[in-house]
Amino acid sequence: MSAAAERVVQTKEKKPFYFLKWAKSRKGQQTIIIVAFMFIPLLLLFTFTYFPFGEMFKFSFYKMKYIGPRKFVGLENYIQVFKRDDCFGALKLSLYYIGGAMVQLAIALYLATILSFKVKGGSIFKGFMFFPYLISGIAIGFIFKFFYTRGFVFDTVLQWCGFELENLPYWLKDQSINNISLVATSVWRYFGQNMVLFIGAIMSVDAELYEAAELDGANRFQQFRYIILPSIKTIVTLNVILSITGSLSAFEPPYVITSGANGTGTYFVIMNEIAHVSQKVGLASAMAIVLLVIIFIATILQKLFFKYAMRDAEDENTVAGLRREKKLERYRNRRRKGRVTG
Amino acid sequence: MKLKKVLALSMAAVLTLSMAACGSGSGESAAVNTNEEVTEEAPAETTEETGEDAAAEDTASAGELSYTNIVLGESYKDITTTIKWLTHRTDLIDSGMIDSYIAKFNETYPDITVEVEGVTNYADDALLRLTAGNWGDIIMIPAVDKNLLSEYFVPYGSLDDVSEVVRFADQWMYDNTVYGIASTGNAQGIVYNKAVFEQAGITAIPKTPEEFIAALQAVKDNTDAIPLYTNYAAGWTMGAWDAYINGSATGSSKYMNQELIHTQDPFQNYGDDTHAYAVYKILYDATANGLIEDDYTTTDWEGCKGMINNGEIGCMVLGSWAYSQMVDAGEHGDDIGYMSFPITVGGKQYASAGPDYNYGINVNASDDNKAAAMVFVKWMTEESGFAYNEGGVPISMDGEYPALYSAFDGIEFIADEPAVAGEEDILNELNAESELNINSGGDSKIQAIIEHAANGDMTFDEIMAQWNEAWTSAQETVGVEVTN
């Protein structure tokens, strides 16, 4: 057998390779098309993502400005990042944004649940709530700059509600609340998008389950707790991870609304200032790499957390699923029987 | 199915086309460059270009391109070309002023077409464009290190020659060669509303920090106007405070570029209401005494122009370039006045003056374009009336001062002298290292003064001590000798 195989290999090797013939063959055509189609996206990906990232990684070991000579300093920039209190101090602000992200997800989940049932004017509500996501972040920044200005939109609305202007805080000036004001703009912007994602997931839940649950006497909350939430677990996890990594790299609201002044400078804003005003490009690149590592760690931790926290739910879920299946079967049988008898 | 195929095909077409466009774009420009080099540059010249001491040779040999040799209306009349100008004055492009300047220029030089590109976020973007190299022929020189000037820009001539006909010629000078001609000059003072000050009962222009704070208090007590509008939210308007710590606060033309870098603790209290300490203390005291706008975080730069025009604002600390904008912003332009900064040094008042952005000419442009660009720069400086129209200090030596400087009688204009040879880049390095960024975008440090003053969580002396510390450690890192 081995000899035969060898002979086959040998003849194959000896056979001259005709490129044109190969290119005309089905297999050749396939390969060419695959390579041709892969080439452009891969090239774009490389030139605009991996290559610049590699350059940035290199920069992080240099003391350099945008132009002019560069000096290799080894890990000095990384040491600086950990030594300076403004770099990691800025990460504390991320807690505001993480808190905001949780609120945002809760609102989105709540509204998605309501809107996935039949609600009068549901589409209009969905549209209105999704709309902020379509506006550019810069425009939103300018909207809220005026929104929060003393005696402008927000204060006026609150005055209609019976508040006195003297008792209202300065939304952007008061350092105890200005970060909350900024986070609120980001919640306003993104909850609609989360909601739409949730609605999409909820839609995929088998509608018969609700009917069954209703027959079994489950109320809306129990339906949510035992049917909807387990079914859309994946998308909830995904949204939590995206929101938290997004919170760590919050940039637009503080940059546009307060330009990072008055205690609102997040990690990204500080990084931008160091890179573009002080032109410490190496240090800023090191900050970016450190943030990337932090985001990696945060994501892995969350993955592990959900794996651990959801394992019970999953076990329960499979049992519950089985139970549901049985229930459904019984229900169908009953209906069938009912029809037969009735 | 058919639709899908069409879609896929068109996608592929778009992708390949865009790729091709990128490719051919760069290819074309490269081709043009080589063409020009071949046809228009004599081989001897190319070698000269690449030589290290090209600049010196250029100025030595007669008939070479130099600012002083150009006679407007006579030199280079035979050139037909198109030059591109990268400018920060997007407002003048929008108002059509730039077009009218160019139209006038074309009356003398009909064969030179000038294209203009306005850049809004100029300070950052121009630097990137400069590095990338595709910026055209004339650029308003952004913050580059001076030892790199010859890599990017055509020399205008030696300092001795150019400074005879042009003010502020030493702004972008390296090795005694001038690489930039200022577009206009600014003097540093305070733009104020004369009617508001009159209503507040202020008869004499304040000359010291105490008098100034007292005047602001009077405005607060006697009128409805905001005494001092900080423009905190815009950011760069805060950075503008740095422009007063040199001439205005010290009376020395050497302070900014020669003395500051060697000074031990430049932000200390000198005890006589001078130097940087006194400048920033005015801001701190005004904020602490409630003499600025109520909610500083939501100030509006465009809106403030109309407000000061209507008498809702007492004064703003801005360079003279702001004067004409405030006058034009409403019906009460006559009320706007300009006064010097309230610091008196040894019984005399001074005002820092300095150039605005400078014109730089691309060293990699073709010879025709270089000549055309320099002709245009000279025309803008001498014939256009640009500086005068902008309310600026004239750049051409025989230019006329605009009327707003009438209040500066008896006040000496101080233009910063350039750094000593070999120390040109130290200020930049110290600025970056200390992150104080004096006169180069250090807005956040001045915003912080207002924050600390309003919240009362840091005294002024503590802030200044912090700055001194940053400055000292930067001096150590950069290795600057500290003399006094």
From TrEMBL, chain A:
Membrane topology: Multi-pass membrane protein
Transmembrane segments: 31-53, 95-117, 129-148, 226-245, 281-301
Chief site of localization: membrane
Keywords, ordered alphabetically: Cell membrane, Membrane, Transmembrane, Transmembrane helix, Transport
Gene3D superfamilies the record matches: MetI-like
Organism lineage string: Bacteria, Bacillati, Bacillota, Clostridia, Lachnospirales
Keyword check for Cytoplasm: no
Location of the protein in the cell: Cell membrane
Name of this chain's protein: Sugar ABC transporter permease
Positions of the ABC transmembrane type-1 domain: 90-302
UniProtKB/TrEMBL annotation, chain B:
Cross-referenced PROSITE patterns: PROKAR_LIPOPROTEIN (PS51257)
Region (Disordered): 26-60
Biased composition (Acidic residues): 37-56
Tree of life domain: Bacteria
Transmembrane segments: none
InterPro entries: Bact_solute-bd_prot1, SBP
Keyword Oxidoreductase annotated: no
Keywords from the UniProt entry: Cell membrane, Lipoprotein, Membrane, Palmitate, Signal
Comp. bias intervals (Low complexity): 26-36
Signal peptide as annotated in the record: 1-20
Name listed for the protein in its UniProt record: ABC transporter substrate-binding protein
Organism of this sequence: Kineothrix sedimenti
Taxon lineage: Bacteria, Bacillati, Bacillota, Clostridia, Lachnospirales
